[in-house]
């Protein structure tokens, strides 16, 4: 069966070999709440659909319009089996409850590296920040090299920003994107970090300038803040 949980997902689970992210546009904060409730009802009224699905989490965007979805799969075949046999009935029920949902994108990723705050017990994240960057063409070596450079800059920053809990870097399977799932103590801590001296989060060091001017970096989806709204796991 399906069980609801308030616990945030463990992003570096070794048995999650196919983490997926997607976003829906629903329009208003009220429709965000309605959609989360519809997802919960739809899933909790059905058996857990696949042994290969290890967790499914939904987040409400601070923009008042979007939802982020993060599903943790043992492998891509488990998702393909779910897509073929169980997905459509769930989508139909949710769309009946909340008509007009726009499904914007689905990204297939692999977890690459994580950085977790190492002083004291980790707090429950009060805000999830998604940083999405895109490169001008597929290049897995470039994806990894850029993440390595970001982590080097973070670890050498003489003035780390307070409130950061963790950063989990994922590489898209098509070789063109990097997604950082970052956990913060609060949205205010992240906003204050963005407003700190330097270009973005960082000290303005040569290492950060190297990251921000990486060859082939074109931009992407930018930075978005979310609240964890729903966690579903097998009972």
From TrEMBL:
Keyword Transmembrane found: no
Keywords: Monooxygenase, Oxidoreductase
GO MF assignments: monooxygenase activity
Pfam family, one: ABM
Lipid biosynthesis keyword on record: no
Domain ABM: 129-194
UniProt-recorded name of the protein: Antibiotic biosynthesis monooxygenase
Species for this entry: Streptomyces plicatus
């Amino acid at each position: 069966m399906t069980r609801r949980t308030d616990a945030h997902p463990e992003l570096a689970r070794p048995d999650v070999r196919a983490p997926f992210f997607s976003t829906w546009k629903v329009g208003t904060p009220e429709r965000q709440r309605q959609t989360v409730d519809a997802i919960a009802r739809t899933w909790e009224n059905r058996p857990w659909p696949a042994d290969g699905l290890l967790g499914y989490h939904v987040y409400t965007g601070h923009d008042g319009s979007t939802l982020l979805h993060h599903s943790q799969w043992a492998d891509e075949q488990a998702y393909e089996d779910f897509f073929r046999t169980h997905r459509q009935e769930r989508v139909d029920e949710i769309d009946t409850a909340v008509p007009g949902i726009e499904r914007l994108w689905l990204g297939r990723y692999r977890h690459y590296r994580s950085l977790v705050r190492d002083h004291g017990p980790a707090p429950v994240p009060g805000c999830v920040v998604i940083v999405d960057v895109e490169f001008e063409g597929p290049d897995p070596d470039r994806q990894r090299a850029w993440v390595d450079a970001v982590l080097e800059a973070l670890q050498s920053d003489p003035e780390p920003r307070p409130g950061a809990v963790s950063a989990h870097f994922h590489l898209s399977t098509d070789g063109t994107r990097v997604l950082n799932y970052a956990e913060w103590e609060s949205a205010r801590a992240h906003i204050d970090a963005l407003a700190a001296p330097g270009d973005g989060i960082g000290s303005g060091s040569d290492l950060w300038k190297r990251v921000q001017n990486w060859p082939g970096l074109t931009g992407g989806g930018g930075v978005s803040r979310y609240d964890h709204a729903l966690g579903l796991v097998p009972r």
